[in-house]
């Protein structure tokens, strides 16, 4: 399976009072935590970021591709997933691993485990005691038309519903703290 990865770092970080992706956590920017985790399971990793942001600059300084949302897509992570799927499909990947930029406590092997659950061209998502964690997922690039259609109405439907519609298999992750995302400094 040719698995590419994308870090979703396009949010506005309004509750955080600053840009999350470049904020340090244990000595490294949050973006690096996500990139390094994906890199352990993926052939190549890109960053979905808004133009002119610290996330874009840090990704470029790190030699990573930066993927922007399609013009006209609604704000939200599904737009970043769409852009990532198009990027991965254009480069011959079969699947795309998706990671948030603000969850540094995710298990290091999470995406290797998700890829095993997804299989050759399937989908998978992490599920915690709190429920589905759709920003920790594997998407087949064949899901691109489904994601594009979901965004076509100009709204941002729940990501877990789209994953469900493409047959995503669950991966239970028991560590309750693993999915903690940082919303405050």
Write a structural description.
The strands form two sheets. Strands 5-4-1-6-8-7-9 form a seven-stranded mixed sheet, sandwiched between helices. Helix 3 packs antiparallel against helix 5. It contains six helices and nine strands, in the order βββαβαβαβαββααβ. It has 185 residues and is α/β, with parallel strands linked by helices. The protein is globular and about 40 Å long. Helix content is 30%, strand content 23%. Helix 2 links the parallel strand 4 and strand 5.
Write the layout of secondary structure elements.
Elements: E1 3-8, E2 24-25, E3 28-29, H1 30-39, E4 44-48, H2 54-61, E5 65-67, H3 77-90, E6 95-100, H4 110-118, E7 124-128, E8 131-140, H5 144-151, H6 159-165, E9 169-172
Parallel strand pairs: 1-4, 1-6, 4-5, 7-9
Antiparallel strand pairs: 2-3, 6-8, 7-8
Poorly predicted sequence stretches spanning 5 or more consecutive residues: none
Number of strands: 9
Q: Which structural class matches the secondary elements?
A: alpha/beta
Query: For the residues shown, what is the average pLDDT?
Result: 89
Order of helices and strands: EEEHEHEHEHEEHHE
Distance between the termini: 38 Å
Strand content: 15-25%
Radius of gyration, in Å, reads 15 Å
Gross morphology: globular
| Biggest beta sheet attributes | 7 strands, mixed
* Percent in helix: 25-40%
**Widest sheet: strand ordering:** 5-4-1-6-8-7-9
């Amino acid at each position: 399976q040719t698995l590419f990865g994308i870090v979703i770092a396009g949010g506005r970080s309004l509750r955080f009072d600053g840009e999350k992706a470049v904020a340090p956590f244990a000595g490294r920017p949050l973006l690096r935590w996500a990139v390094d985790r994906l890199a352990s399971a993926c052939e190549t990793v890109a960053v979905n970021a808004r133009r002119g942001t610290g996330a874009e600059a840090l990704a470029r300084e790190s030699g990573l591709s930066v993927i922007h949302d399609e013009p006209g897509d609604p704000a939200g992570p599904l737009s970043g997933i769409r852009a990532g799927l198009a990027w991965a499909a254009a480069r011959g990947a079969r699947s795309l691993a998706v990671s948030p930029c603000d969850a540094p406590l995710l298990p290091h092997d999470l995406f290797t485990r998700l890829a095993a659950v997804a299989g050759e061209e399937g989908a998978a998502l992490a599920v915690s005691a709190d429920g589905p964690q759709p920003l920790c997922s594997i998407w087949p690039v064949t899901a691109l038309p489904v994601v594009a259609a979901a965004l076509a109405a100009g709204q941002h439907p729940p990501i877990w519903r789209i994953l469900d519609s493409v047959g995503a298999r669950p991966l239970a992750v028991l560590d309750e703290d693993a999915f903690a995302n940082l919303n405050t400094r």
